[in-house]
């Protein structure tokens, strides 16, 4: 018991401080194509959330949920913290994130445009732009991550 109190009062050793470097932001990722795509998705999702909040608050939950999911993926990729969860298939999860966002924003955008409100029409326009960004991201993930893994599995 006394040993545990002594360990708490001492400053952390260098090995423990090195463990905190897992949250360092990789600036090269943020300037890469994937980083720019995630940042664009995040910004457009936030704009759509603001538009839905101003016009039809019933649809703002979908935009807020996708905002937090995209923020989590941006954080995990930018800090490279996703590498600690090696049992998860990250390209597949990212691909499914994009496909689900495409479906959600298509449905919500077309439902919002029926209200004929100015902010709802702006949300529709930004929603269509966001769907195209998510579709491009899904296409890039499929071409760079999923197809090469499938061809490697066929060769073995």
TrEMBL record:
It is found in: Membrane. It is a multi-pass membrane protein. The chain crosses the membrane at residues 67-83, 95-113, 119-139. Its main location: membrane. GO terms for cellular component: membrane. Coiled coil: none annotated. PROSITE patterns: MARVEL (PS51225). Keywords: Membrane, Transmembrane, Transmembrane helix. InterPro entries: Marvel, MARVEL-CKLF_proteins. Residues 29-146 form the MARVEL domain. Pfam families: MARVEL (PF01284). PANTHER family: CKLF-LIKE MARVEL TRANSMEMBRANE DOMAIN-CONTAINING PROTEIN 5 (PTHR22776:SF26), MARVEL-CONTAINING POTENTIAL LIPID RAFT-ASSOCIATED PROTEIN (PTHR22776). This is CKLF like MARVEL transmembrane domain containing 5. It comes from Pipistrellus kuhlii (Kuhl's pipistrelle).
